[in-house]
Specification:
Number of strands: 10
CATH superfamily: Cytochrome P450
CATH architecture: Orthogonal Bundle
Bound molecules: protoporphyrin IX containing FE
Distance between the termini: 44 Å
Oligomer: single chain
Number of helices: 17
Shape: globular
Length: 492
């Protein structure tokens, strides 16, 4: 097949789905004989260029069309443009970027020898550090900063320690979630799942990652998830298209940064909750990682609230909606689950469910939860796309928009279609080299020397477990992007 031949020229590894490789393909592509091209595109007139691009991005075109139109205009997946936020109130935020929009050019973002990631988690604009107790948390640190080594290892250690209770806490929270949706479906004919899902993920993540039990604090148990939602929203609003009536969105949501004091009360409650209920974790962080109480709590809240809760809150509704709205797919998944589940579900049994895992990967491919990724050139270097090579200067900001990169026709057949079995079999496993949702390939391994998501494998296994668990509990689940409209319980 053409795709297989094409892939031979790229970094390639034969992997079992979900298993990390021993040597991650996080190097930029090797030098090629492709033609050297000046990076097309321009930043436009000062002030006017950034504001016109901002209006296109948020209002007239939307992010997908914004990037697609420029690919067509410049006949290149690499070009210069501005990305918001910008003028008038984001003084000192330089909106100029080099967009990298195919799998090959995007892969340079993972090569920590040539790019750095200091303070650019959401782009050149960085939300105030007041949101994180005046400290720069792990995700804002570059790999060259000694504190990144400490905090990344701490994050990976939290996950390792939590793996003892991960499954029980997940299943307990899913039970509560489905009980609540089920009773709504019985009483009202349908049940919204967005809030029950967030409540379940909040409880599960707080208990497993921080070892803190929300039921010891009624206020946190009741409203902790909403506190995180508000805290996240205020940090991210200037960078996200919401889709409400324009020009209101431009005036009120994208023109200035919201101040921390609007959520400081809630944040302080979450801080006190971790301080009181997560004592074992705090003392472990101090003895094993030399982290003081304050930096531990702010980092735990960031990992828990921003990375984990934020990531799952964006990813899972799309996954549930996909399954609940496709009865044919659901039947195939259910058969696989029931054949492999045995007496009870475990992560081992889920790893024997290639279709379930492939559906999780395909959802991540078509709807990557973190759409934009950034990296700054550490030095001058040559960047390759599929057809050209470009000179990048030290200090330039690269911006990858994953939803387009993950539809790269050079790598993915019928890139716009949802193909449930895309990542199955040998060819499917090879495609995992090009699945980048975690800021690295799915065959890579997070480490202190890269910026790949610490929970790369936990996320995909947890999502697979949610699918398997739900289809073990129900014979059919019917619904849409917000609600479940019918449930048929499995006969035990
Ligand atoms: C669906 C859920 C998740 C998604 C989509 C997600 C996605 C990502 C992405 C894209 C990055 C890289 C950001 C960048 O630098 O551009 C990242 C980093 C990170 N993620 Fe996740 N993540 C998820 C869940 C989690 C969970 C459960 C944890 C729990 C420990 C976690 C911990 C981290 C950490 C610590 C980093 C920073 C890595 C570093 O600084 O080297 N993530 N995540």
């Amino acid at each position: 097949m053409a795709i297989a031949t094409k892939m031979m020229t790229c970094r390639m590894m034969s992997m079992s789905p979900g298993m990390p490789s021993s040597s991650p393909p996080t190097q930029s592509p090797p030098p090629t004989s492709l033609p050297l091209r000046t990076i097309p595109g321009s930043y436009g007139w000062p002030l006017l260029g950034p504001i016109s691009d901002r209006l296109d991005y948020f209002w007239f075109q939307g992010p997908d069309t914004f990037f697609k139109k420029r690919i067509d205009k410049y006949k290149s997946t690499v070009f210069r443009t501005n990305v918001p936020p910008a003028f008038p109130f984001f003084v000192g935020v330089n909106p100029n970027v080099v967009a990298v929009l195919d799998t090959k050019s995007f892969a340079h973002l993972f090569d920590m020898d040539i790019v750095e990631k200091k303070n650019i988690l959401v782009g050149e604009y960085m939300p105030s550090v007041k949101f994180t107790g005046n400290i720069r948390t792990c995700a804002y640190l570059d790999t060259s900063e000694p504190q990144h080594i400490k905090l990344k290892n701490f994050a990976m250690d939290i996950l390792k320690r939590s793996s003892k209770v991960w499954l029980t806490e997940l299943v307990g929270s899913l039970d509560t979630m489905w009980d609540s949706i089920e009773s709504d479906v019985c009483e009202k004919g349908s049940g919204g799942y967005l809030i029950p899902l967030q409540q379940a993920m909040f409880r599960f993540l707080v208990k497993s990652l921080a070892g803190a039990d929300p039921s010891n604090s009624p206020e946190i148990a009741e409203g902790g998830y909403a506190m995180l939602d508000k805290w996240l929203a205020l940090q991210l609003l200037p960078t996200v298209k919401i889709g409400i009536l324009q020009p209101l969105e431009e005036i009120f949501l994208h023109s200035f940064a919201y101040p921390f004091f609007l959520v400081s009360g809630d944040y302080n409650k979450l801080y006190e909750f971790i301080k009181n209920e997560g004592k074992e974790l705090l003392s472990h962080a101090e003895t094993e990682f030399g982290l003081n109480q304050e930096e531990t709590i702010h980092n735990v809240l960031f990992v828990l609230g921003f990375n984990a809760f934020g990531g799952f809150s964006v990813f899972l509704p799309g996954l549930i909606s996909r399954i609940a709205s496709d009865t044919t797919l659901q039947e195939k998944l259910r058969n696989e689950v029931r054949q492999n589940a045995g007496s009870g579900l475990s992560f081992e049994s889920v790893m024997k469910m290639p279709l379930v895992q492939s559906v999780v990967y395909e959802t991540l491919r078509l709807s990557p939860p973190v759409p934009l990724q950034f990296a700054r050139a550490r030095k001058d270097f040559r960047l390759s796309s599929h057809d050209s090579v470009f000179d990048i200067k030290e200090g330039e900001l690269l911006c990858g928009y994953q939803p387009l990169v993950m539809r790269d026709p050079e790598v993915f057949d019928e890139p716009e279609s949802f193909k449930a079995d895309r990542f199955m079999g040998e060819e499917g496993s090879e495609l995992l080299n090009y699945l980048y949702w975690s800021n690295g390939p799915q065959t890579g391994s997070p480490s202190e020397s890269n910026k790949q998501c610490a929970a790369k494998d936990y996320v995909t296994l947890t999502a697979s477990m949610i699918v398997a668990y739900s289809l073990k509990r129900y014979d059919t689940i019917t619904g849409n992007s917000t609600s479940i409209t019918a449930l048929e319980k499995a006969v035990k």
